[in-house]
């Protein structure tokens, strides 16, 4: 699975970073999401799904390229 972030929708709430700090960070200048790992392996799928779920602006999505 692949993580996609819509930076135009991101409000910098940081819920993704709190939920999955190995997958996400925040830009120091504007607080918007920085995706650290675009291709999510099986061990991180649950954390990625939770981060997508808790994002208040709906800026994150998971894409299944299979």
Automatic annotation (TrEMBL):
Taxonomic lineage from the root: Bacteria, Bacillati, Actinomycetota, Actinomycetes, Pseudonocardiales
Q: Which Pfam families match?
A: Fer4_15
**Which residue numbers delimit the 4Fe-4S ferredoxin-type domain?**
1-29
- Which Gene Ontology MF annotations are present? 3 iron, 4 sulfur cluster binding; electron transfer activity; iron ion binding
Identify the PANTHER family for this entry: FERREDOXIN
Q: Which UniProt keywords apply?
A: 3Fe-4S, Electron transport, Iron, Iron-sulfur, Metal-binding, Transport
Function according to Swiss-Prot or TrEMBL: Ferredoxins are iron-sulfur proteins that transfer electrons in a wide variety of metabolic reactions.
InterPro entries assigned to the protein according to its UniProt record, in alphabetical order:
3Fe4S_ferredoxin, 4Fe4S_Fe-S-bd, Fe-S_cluster_ET
**What cofactors does this protein use?**
[3Fe-4S] cluster
Name by which UniProt lists this protein: Ferredoxin
């Amino acid at each position: 699975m692949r993580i996609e972030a819509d930076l135009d929708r991101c409000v910098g709430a940081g819920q993704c970073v709190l939920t999955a700090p190995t997958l996400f960070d925040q830009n120091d200048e504007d607080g918007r999401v920085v995706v650290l790992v675009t291709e999510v392996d099986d061990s991180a799928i649950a954390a990625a799904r939770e981060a997508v779920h808790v994002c208040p602006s709906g800026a994150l999505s998971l894409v299944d390229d299979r």
